[in-house]
# Entry
Amino acid sequence: MTEERDYREAAASFGAVADEYERGRPGYPDELFDALERLWGRGLGGARVLDVGAGTGIATRLLAGRGAEVVGVEPSAGMAARFLASSPTVPLVRGTGDDLPFHDRSVDLVAYAQAFHWTRPERSVPEALRVLRPGGAIAAWWNVHDDGVPWVRARDRRMAAVLPGRYHGYRGIDGHVGHFASAGLAVERTVLHWERRVTVDHVLTDLTSRSYVASLSPEERAPVLAAEREAMLAEFPDGVVVEPFKVDLTVAVVPEHPEHPEHPEQPN
# Structure
């Protein structure tokens, strides 16, 4: 199986677990959006925003709550259906970051919440630059479990052992966001820490929505989840988990008077 096929299969797996994604995935702390505004140098209120790879709309709704005029962009039919069920008043367009169905210089912010790694940067960065107005920005962020906590490291080891070749975590963030500076953008980055208190069942619902589990067949998935339930209950016998997160945020700002051409060269 080629890398391209692996990538497509993993990306396509989310539609079948859209309900688990909506119920299990963590949201984002208010401090994330405060930091985004600070690094961008302008507020979200009234800004025209694309939430690319919007999924079920978790970040989209939070952006809208900050006053942004936000449009979700989502390729998966299953995820889009769940988005519309949860957020019927928020506009949604079927599309991808590699081919944004929007006019040149028509938006202020292109946001990727847990999604930029599903794009091809040689395509998605020029596309974002095409649709952004001068002074606009690309913002990419990831909720990452804090592996400075022992039980998180132990779970990483279990997943890597039971799913060799599938489980990679988010180790590639540096490589992904490195494409912004090479495109001539002013890049700022910060990491925020937060946590949520949830049940073991909630953690397993979240795990089910992760591509490395979602892409398994039901028969393959069941023993993985059963073993993880046993391990988590051994760690948290009362069934309550304090999940520690780091939000890794990168904001790349387009100059107010850009020197790049209408159709910028693709970054190396």
